[in-house]
Amino acid sequence: MATISPLYEQTRESKVEMWTCSCRAEKRGYAALVEDVGVGALGWSKKNFFFGGNRVVKIRLQQQRGLSTELLRYKGPIHCARMIVREEGILGLWAGAAPTVMRNGTNQAAMFTAKNAFDTMLWKKHEGDGKVLQPWQSMISGFLAGTAGPICTGPFDVVKTRLMAQSKSGGELKYRGMFHAIATIHAEEGLRALWKGLIPRLMRIPPGQAIMWAVADQITGFYERTYLTNAPL
């Protein structure tokens, strides 16, 4: 029997979740928007519980300079994880969990709301009306909606990375938590520092959202034409 890769399964679940949240937001307005933030936060809390340690290890390894293993603090993923647990405790593997959950919950709400808004403004498309956008229309709406997430979640993304990257090597941790990190970065580097890395994120996320929505809208349109427009009142 053919097996489904974890990456494919995660992508499929994300598309189903995005379509479901989008329909709810259109039908129930702000109530669904608040619910989407909660659902997104809870969903990413679960994922962060299982995979948060991988992200911390990845960032610690990425920020090391040089190629000589003798000069590197962390010799590999397993050695890195052991060092983090030894110096910072088991919870060190989940550093940055709070801003990660906030970033992804806020990102979902911003993206779904923006996508529906651009569909309505640009193409007069409403959820459940049976109208199917052309792929190029979906790509434009998806691209524009994809910019909303990084702009709204910039501070959470910066704080997440700072919390994951810091270590106790020879001293205390600089940032004690999400709110302390936000206040410290703002005081020492200014407000704009909370959106560092925004341009690379805008170069990565909106193009991916454009492609994803071009596919998702075709699937959603097929469902609406087949089941919703012909459904008895």
Topology:
Layout: H1 6-28, H2 30-62, H3 77-88, H4 97-123, H5 135-165, H6 178-189, H7 198-228
Organism: Datura stramonium
Family: Belongs to the mitochondrial carrier (TC 2.A.29) family.
Solcar repeats: 31-121, 133-222
Could you name the key traits of this structure?
233 residues; mainly alpha; 7 helices; elongated; disordered N terminus; transmembrane helix; transmembrane; MCP_dom_sf; membrane
**Count of runs of 4 or more consecutive helical residues:** 7
Q: In this structure, how is the largest beta sheet organized?
A: none
Quaternary status of these chains?
Answer: single chain
Identify the overall geometry: elongated
Helix and strand sequence? HHHHHHH
The low-confidence runs, each spanning 5 or more residues with pLDDT under 50, are 1-12
Mean pLDDT, as a whole number? Answer: 79
The level of helicity is: over 70%
Structural class: mainly alpha
Strand residue content: under 5%
Cα gyration radius (Å): 21 Å
Our measurement of the CA-to-CA distance between the termini, rounded to an integer number of angstroms, reads 42 Å
Q: Strand tally, please?
A: 0
Account of the protein in words:
With 233 residues, this protein is an all-alpha fold. Helix content is 73%, strand content 0%. It contains seven helices and no strands. Helix 1 (6-28) runs antiparallel to helix 2. Mean pLDDT is 79; it is low at 1-12.
